[in-house]
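I am still getting used to backbone structure tokens and would like to learn alongside you. To get us started, please write out a protein record for me. Once you have written the record down, we can walk along the chain together.
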Amino acid sequence: MRIGVPTIVGAIRMPGKVGWQNAMELLLTGDRVDAHRAKEMGLVGSVVPHDDLMDEARRLADRLTQGAPLAVRATKEMAWRGQRLPWVDAVRMGETMRRLVGATEDAREGGLAARERRPPQWKGR
């Protein structure tokens, strides 16, 4: 707004991320917000002191990489596509992906590791 050019992608995506009121405030004023306001709006997941930022990012990265790669990929794909597909189509696609990923070596390993109370060894297949 402040340079005379509209933000098209932002206008399309932001209301779904932060709600209509917050999106319109940001989109139409061009105001910047601090980290705490961004957290209130849902733009960021957490706020940490600057000195703790890299340690916190590494902890999150470690947690994110513990999942089975194929299951993580399928979940991300469904989260993305599910927002854009009609409900019935999204459920059908999700069930198809679940059956495919559920038949993988990693799915078998995950079940076995859970029964044996040990960390799984993912192979991405």
